[in-house]
Every structure is written in structure tokens, then in C-alpha cells.
Amino acid sequence: MRIDKYLSDNSIGTRKEIKSLIKAGLVQVNDAQVSDPGMHIDPVKDVVKYDGRVILYEPFHYFMLNKPAGCISATAEKNETTVVDLLAGENIKNLSPVGRLDKDTEGLLILTDDGHLLHNLISPSKHVGKEYLVKTAHALSEKDLSALRDGVDIGDDKKTLPAEAFILDGDLHLVIYEGRFHQVKRMLEAVGNSVLYLKRLRMGKLVLDENLEPGVYRKLTKDELDLLS
After folding, report:
1. pTM given for the model
2. Long-range CB contacts for residues 40-44, cutoff 8 Å, separation at least 24
3. Active site residue 156
4. What per-residue confidence (pLDDT) applies to 92?
5. Domain that holds residue 229
6. Once rounded to an integer, what is the mean pLDDT over residues 134-147?
7. Residue 175 phi, psi dihedral angles, 5° rounding
8. Is the model's pLDDT at 10 over the cut of 90?
9. How far apart are CA 42 and CA 3, in angstroms?
10. Fewer CB within 10 Å, N side or C side of the chain?
């Protein structure tokens, strides 16, 4: 692998920026200063340093974002702020959100360039549960909760899959195992209610880090990544 690609893949900068960093003497391989951006290295065996810091190769990147309301779950959208825009400082190509949250919905969103993981998390056949905190226009009855648990008609060919629905601290918690368009909102409409506020708390076993303010992100830890595998 070329040294400029290695550093670019690890968010050090663009190929053009890395060329300047190399010229400035800030890049070393096995403690020898690099002068050629096209130098080939072994990502496993060689030790790469930038500005004295060892840069470990990461073939894929994984981030947890506390998505704020007003932000689009997309890679690009004209005249709109996207979730990828919030990670612009990472300079990572091919980064995509894992599934989508509506513009006005907040909470846990995973972003990655690992296509295999992305597929496994959003494929309906994998049955990955997604838990939402839902503030509703009015209280739900036990009959409403039972209907949500059994699956409701939201106007598609099939009813929604059975869900988990329970009240905690006065608010509805809904765990769904598919990702249809505006699904949570349509499910509440199906039982004569409406959503005032919606936040995703969990995806699979991965729980949103509540220390992350809306709009803030961080890399997933190894333990968190293991929860998704």
C-alpha cells in the first residue's frame, strides 16, 4: 500500500495534504523519514508515524453519533446539513449512516464504511432490534400497547412485525425489528395517536452514550464493536 493512501485512509489528510506533510518531514516509516508519497509499505509489519505519533492502520471506521434534530440521515443533500457533514473533520471516504433517522428524530446513529456490517445491521432478515423513546400526544392504553406488540396495519402490504412496547417513566419505549418508512410514527397513528418527540436509544446491543450531546460523535470502542458483530 502507498504511504499516502495509508495516511489518507486513517484521516490524516487528503493525498495533496499528505504530500505536503511528507515534504515537511512529519512522516516516518520504521523510524526513517519518508520523502516519497508513493512509497509502498506493509500495513501490518511496518510502523508508521505522523508527527511522532504511531498511526495504526484501520481498514474500516466506526462512529457513534448522537444525531440532532434538523439533520438529514444522508451522505449529501443540497441545502441541508447531513450526518456525514457533522463528521467532516474525519476526512473519511465512503462513510454512510447505518439506516436512517427522520430529520426531526434524535439519537443513536452508527456511521461506517464497513459495508458488511452495515448490511447485517439493516437487513430485515437479521432482526436487529432498535429501541426508541417516544413521547406521544396522549397516553396509550393497554389495548394500544398490545396492538403495537402484535403488529399493526400501517398501510403496507403486511402488518408490522411484532414489537416490544412498554411504558417507562411515563413515556413509550418501542423496540422494532424492521425499518419501514416513518415506521414508528405510522405505528402510533395506527393506534390513534401521534409522535411529539422521537429518539433512538439502542441498536442491537449497542446503547447510545448519553454523555454525547446532540451533534457530537466519537469512535466506537472495540467492546462496542463486538456488541454489533
Report:
1. 0.84
2. 40/1, 40/2, 40/3, 41/1, 41/2, 41/3, 41/6, 42/1, 43/1, 43/6
3. no
4. 66
5. 60-127+211-229
6. 98
7. -110, 120
8. no
9. 9
10. C
**What pLDDT shows up at residue 188?**
98
Q: What is the distance between the alpha carbons of residues 28 and 40, in angstroms, rounded to a whole number? A: 13
Number of structural domains in the chain: 3
- Per residue in 64-97, pLDDT (tens digit) is 999 999 999 998 888 899 999 999 777 667 889 9
Determine which one of 102, 104, 144, 209 is catalytic.
102
CA atoms of 61 and 35, how far apart (whole Å): 28
For residues 112 and 62, the answer to whether their CB atoms sit within 8 Å is yes
* 122 and 135 housed in the same domain: no
Please state, in angstroms and rounded to a whole number, the distance separating the CA atoms of residues 153 and 221.
Answer: 39
Average the pLDDT over each of 25-29, 84-88, 188-192, 201-205 and give the range with the smallest value: 84-88
Does one domain contain both 229 and 121?
A: yes
Please state, rounded to an integer, the average pLDDT across all residues of the chain: 94
Residue 46 and residue 154 share a domain: no
102-125 average pLDDT score: 93
CB 47 within 8 A of CB 3: no
Task: State the cell numbers at 36.
Answer: 516519497
Same domain for 225 and 165: no
Q: Helices then strands (H, E): number in the chain?
A: 6, 13
In the three-class reduction of DSSP (H, G, I as helix; E, B as strand; rest coil), residue 54 is classed as strand
